[in-house]
Records
---
Amino acid sequence: MNNMTDTKRHGKSILFLLTACLAVVIVSNAAVGSADISAMMVAKITYMGILEGTQNTLSHFVPSIGQSPVWDYLSLTKTWPPKYEVIVLQSRIPRVVLAGLVGAALSTAGCAMQGLLKNPMADPYIIGMSSGASLGASLAMLLGLYVQTTAFVFSILTIFLVYNISRVGRSVPIDTLLLAGIAVGSFLSAFTSFLVYINQSRDHVIFWMMGSFANASWEKVGTSSVMIIAGIILLYRHAWNLNVMLLGEEQAQYLGVNIEWVKRYILLLASLITGAAVAVSGIIGFVGLIIPHITRIIVGPDHRILFPTSTIAGSIFLIMCDTISRIVIPPENLPVGIITAMFGAPFFIYLLRKRRKTIYA
Amino acid sequence: MLEVKDVCVSYGNRKILNKVNLRAHEGEIVGIVGPNGSGKTTFLKSLAKYLIPDAGSIYINNVNITEMDNREIAKNVAVVSQIVSIDFDFTARDIVLMGRTPYIKGSEKPEDIMIAEDAMRKTNTYEFKDRMVTELSGGELQRVIIARALAQTPKILLLDEPTSHLDIAHQVEILNLVREAADSGLTVIAVIHDLNLAAHYCDSICMLKSGEIVCTGQPETVFTEENIRNTFNIPVEVNTLKSTNSLYIMPLLKRVSKAG
C-alpha cells in the first residue's frame, strides 16, 4: 500500500465514513415527523420491509425458498401498530430515498460539469437544463399533460439544442457551450414566465420550480432510480478522463483522450441523471453547485475519489434539507429548494472564508 | 522513424506551413529553429495530429498518422508543450501516471505504476513524488512534465521550447535529460530558441522561416552567419568554442555605453 498517496488513503476513509453516515441519516431522518416513531423502530420496520420484500420476490420465482425456515430466524416480532408500518414504508422511507437519489444525481452531475467545463460556477443546470425542464413542467400543467415526462423530455431537448448551437464542425468549444446554454436558458425562461402568467393555477408551477419531495412515492423512486444509478456508475468510468482533461483539452488529446467523444458522453450522462432528478422533484438549486466544491476541498481534485464522495455527500445533504423543510413550519412542507440555499450558502461562505485560498483547485 | 512529406498547414485562409519535409531517426535530436511566427509550434502540433495538414503526410515507422486514433498516437508520440501550468492539486506522481492514459482502461495497473515511477527516477522527480504540482518550481514542474511524456513510453518525443523559462543550470539539466532519452532510442524533435544550446545538443537542425524550411542538416552546415542573418534578420558571428568544440553564435551588437 506504500504507493498509495496520503490524500487517496485519506479520501477512501472519508468515503467509508460518509457511507456509514448515509445509512444513519436515512433511518434517523425517517424517524422525524408528526407520528412519534423512534429511529430504532424505523430501522426495525425498514429491515422487516426489506426482508419480507426479498422473501416475496424470491418465492415468486422459486416457491420452495419462500417456505424455508431461514425467514423465521431472520424475522423480528412486530411490536408496532400496522399504521406505523404504512407511514414508514409508504411515506417516509420513499421520501428519504427519493431525496437521497436526487441529491446524489445533482451532486454527481454538478461534479462532472465543473470538471468538464473547468468552471467553478458550473452546476447541473448551467447549460439550460432547468429552464427546459421548467418550460416542460409549466406547459404540462397548463395543458394537463404528465408533468414528470414532459419536464424530462424538455430538459433533454434543451441540451441537444444547446449542444448543436455550439457545435463547430465536429468539436464543441466549452466557452461557446456555456454562452449558448445561458442564452437558450433565458429564452426558454421567458416562455416559462409567460406560461406561468397566463396559467390560472400558477401556484403549482411556482411550487414545482422551487423543488419538493412532498409528493414522493415508490413509483417516483422506481422511475428515476434506474436512470440515476446507471448514469452515476457510467460517469464514474470517466473519472480518469476527467482528471486528464483538467490539464486542458490540448494536453488531454496528447495523452490519448478522445476529447470530443468524452465531452459528448459526459454531457449526455450528466443531463440524463439531472433530467431524471428534476422530473421527480422539480428544480432544486445549490446542491449540484456546492456539494462538489465542498468535497473537492476535502478530498482533492481526483475524480476517482471526488465522484463517489460527492454522490454520497449530495445524498446526505439533500435528505437533511428535506427533513428540515418538513419540520420548520409543521405541518407545512416548505419547498426544499429554499432550505438548500438558506442553510447551505452560509456554510459554504464559512468554508470560503476559512480556506482563504482559491476554492476551485 | 518519423517522416514528414510536403506538409502544408493553415489556419483558415492563412497559410502557416508550406511543403515542409523532414526525416528523423531513432536516437536523433532534431532542433527546429526560426524566428517567432515561423510555424515551429504549428509544425509540432501537426506531428501530434492536434492539427490536421491540408496537404502532405506524416509517417511514424511507415504508418500514416491519419490511420491512427488519439490513443495510438499517444502511445507513439509524447508532447511537452510550451507553457504548462496546472491549477489543480494533483501530486507529481498523479501527473506522471496520467502519461499512462493511452494504456489504461479504468484504473492503473501495477505495471503502469512501475513505468511511471521509473520515468520519475530518470528525471530526478521521484524524491518529490508526493508533493502537489501547484507547489513545484518551474524547473521541477518541467521535469515532471517530461517524466509524464516518458511514461507514455513513446517512440517520438516532441518538445516545444522546453527550457524557455528556466535558468541556465536548469536549461542544461533538462537538455541533458533529453539527450539521455534520445540516446536510449527515442526520436526527439525540439523547438529551441537558444541557438547555442541547439547547436550543442542537436544532431541536426531544421531552420524555418515564414512556414518554409530554409535549410536542414548538421548544426555546422545550418548555422552559418549568412543563414542566420537571412532568417533572423540580425548579423551574427559564428565561432567554435575551443573547450567543447561546439558552435558559438553571438549577435553583432552595437556598442552600448554603460553608466558607471
---
Amino acid sequence: MNIFKIIDEIQKIDGDAVDRLEHATRRHFMNRIGSKLAAVAVPTVFASVVNKAYAQSAGAIDILNFALTLEYLEDEFYQKGNAAAGLIPASDKTIFTQIGKHETQHVAFLKGALGAKAVAKPTFDFTGKGAFATVFTNYNTFLTVSHALEDTGVRAYKGQAGGLMGDPDLLQYALQVHSVEARHASIVRKLLGAATGKPEIKSWITGKAGAPEAVYAGDDNKVQGGVDLTGLAGKSDAAITEAFDEPLTKEQVLAIAGLFL
Amino acid sequence: MINNKNSQKDSDTKGGQESVLNRRLFLRSAGVATAVGTLALGACKDDDDDMVTPPTTTVDLGKDDVGILNYAYALEQLEAAFYEQVVKTPYMGITAAETAILTDIRDHEVIHRDFFKAALTAAAPTQIIPALEVDFSSIDFTNRAKVLGAAKLFEDTGVAAYNGAGKFIKNATYLTLAGKIVSVEARHAAAISDLITPKTADFASDTQIDPNGLDKAIPSATILAAVQPYLKTKISGANLPK
C-alpha cells in the first residue's frame, strides 16, 4: 500500500480531498476531512501501512478490518431497525432478528480475531445523507437499504478472497461469512420485491439493476474466465448475469460505505 | 483458457498477459496430474453414445486446481440435471411463483455446468471428467416436499462444498470464479428454504450457521459421500487436495 493508493481511496469518497491535500500537511489534511472519514477509511488504511511493515499477515489484518467496518455498519443497522417500533411487520420479525444476530456474531468474531488491531466503530448515518430519510420509519425504505447493504457485503467479501490466499484459515472464514451474507441478500430481496410489488426484484441480481447504483455497478458482466458467455446453453443475458455474482474492489466498497458515514 | 477478467474493459487491456500467466499457473498446478483413472476416462469419453460405463468404473476428479474444477463441475452437473427434471415434470400443486423460481435456478445451474465444461475443455482437455449419469430414483418428483427437500439438500451441500474447497485453490482466478458461483448457490439455498418454511429463520438456520455466524465448510470426501447416492457414475475425490 502506498500513499497514492490511500489518497485514491479517500478521493473516491471525498472528491475534493486531493485538492485540499496539495495545500496541507497530512496532519492538517486528516483534521480537515473530519471525524467521519478518519473513523473508518483512514485508520483502516494507515493501520495497514503500519502493520505491513511490522507484521507477517498485515494484508490479512487490513482485510479483516475492512470486513469489520462493513459488519459494524450492518450490525448497527439491524439493531436500530429491529428496535424501531412499527417498522418491521410482525410476519417478518423472525427473519430480521436472525439476520441481526448473524451480523452481531460477525462483529464479535472479527473483533476477536483482530484483538487490539481492530478498528473502532465509526458513526453511521443510515439516512444516506438524506437519500433514505425514512429508513427507520418506512418499511420499504428499510428493505431498500437492507438489500443494498447485504449485496454490498457479498460483493465486498468476494473481492477480498484473493488477498487471503496466503492465510487458508482466514480465507475459509471469509468464505463462510460471504455465503451467509448471500443468504441474507436472497431473503431480503424477496421481501423487497413483494413489498414494492416488483417481481423483477428476485433473490438473485439481474444485470446491474438495483439501487443505489454503485452497489450493482458491473454486475451485468457476462465474461467469465475469459469466455464471453452470451448465449451459453441458449440462456438469456438475464440468467447469465444472475448466475454469477461479481466482486467489488475495496475502493468501490468504501465509496458505497461513504454514503452511510 | 481461463483468464482473470471481471469486465470487458479488463480483457481489452490485460488479456494477453493474463493468458500467458494463467497458462503458466495452470501448467504448474496441473503438472503431472493426469492420473491413471483420467487416462482411462479419456479413452471412453468420446464414445459416450455407444459405450455404457461399467458400474465398476470410477471417475477420478484428479488433483490440484483442475481436480477442484472437476469437483465443482460434477456438483453442477448433478444440480443442473435435478432442476431440469423438476421443471420438466413439475410437482403437484406447483404455483406460478414457484415455477418462476425453480426455472431461474435451473437456468443458473445449467449455465454453471456448461461454463465449467467450456472452461475445463479449454484449460485441461485431457483431464475434464465426462458427463455423469445421475440417479434420482429415490426422489419422488410429483411430491412438493420431497422435491424441495432435495433441492435444499443440493444447495446447502453446494455452498458447503465450495466453502470447503476454496482454501485449496492455488490460482486466484479460479478462486474468484468459485466465489462468484458460491454466493449464487447460497441465494438459491435461502430461496428454497423460504419455499419450504416461509418467513422463518430457515433461510440461514441455526443448524446451518454456527454461533460465530459462519456457514458450513465441508471437506470434499464428506460431500462426495453425501451426493454419491444421486449418481450412477462412481466418482472419486481421492486425489483432491486436502
